[in-house]
Design a protein that fits this description.
Blueprint (H helix, E strand, L loop, with lengths): L7 H16 L9 H14 L11 H27 L17 H17 L2 H12 L3 H8 L3 H19 L1
Helix pairs in contact: 1-2, 1-3, 2-3, 4-7, 5-6, 5-7, 6-7
Length: about 170
């Protein structure tokens, strides 16, 4: 179907699906609205043969476009998350300064190791996202969650640190 041209309804649906994803905060940094629109149009093109002869209404096209965009965004988030996860054997903690009190350094190393063992994978992802982002809202966008969820995870991490140190 190389001569397929999207109908005006399909074009509107692709653009609307892209703006919906953007407005809801589901789009990570580095992804442009035009890219999302193209993803939706490609999905519509792939199913054009199945829909041949059927009237294309805006609602069915919008549903399909949104499905394609969210599938692609899930793939992007999964790829980014997998590229950030560190291997399990990389848990060694170095002292902050070579001339620091050896007993204090040992306590800090022990507390960090305890914290690392007690953190859930989600807390680890939140911690990494917060450290790599400028704001909690940016971290939330990166994780595909709300800023309130990120804040709750940060509070839980603070409690873990207090228990590990205290």
């Amino acid at each position: 179907m190389s001569d397929w041209v999207p109908t005006p309804a399909e074009r509107r649906a692709a653009r609307a699906a892209a703006y919906i994803a953007l407005r809801r905060g589901h789009v990570p940094a580095g992804i442009e609205i035009d890219d999302l629109e193209q993803i939706a149009l490609i999905a519509l093109w792939r199913t054009a043969e199945k829909r041949a002869g059927l009237a294309t209404d805006i609602n069915s096209a919008l549903k399909q476009a949104r499905w394609a965009i969210y599938t692609e965004l899930r793939n992007i988030y999964t790829e980014r998350r997998n590229s950030r996860e560190r291997p399990e054997e990389d848990h060694d903690v170095e002292p902050a300064a070579p001339d620091a009190d050896p007993e204090a350094s040992a306590r800090v190393s022990e507390a960090l190791a305890l914290l690392d063992r007690r953190m859930t994978p989600q807390q680890r992802r939140v911690l990494i996202a917060v450290l790599e982002s400028d704001t909690q809202a940016d971290a939330a966008r990166l994780l595909g969650t709300s800023p309130q969820s990120v804040s709750a995870h940060i509070q839980a991490l603070k409690r873990l640190v207090e228990r590990a140190v205290g």
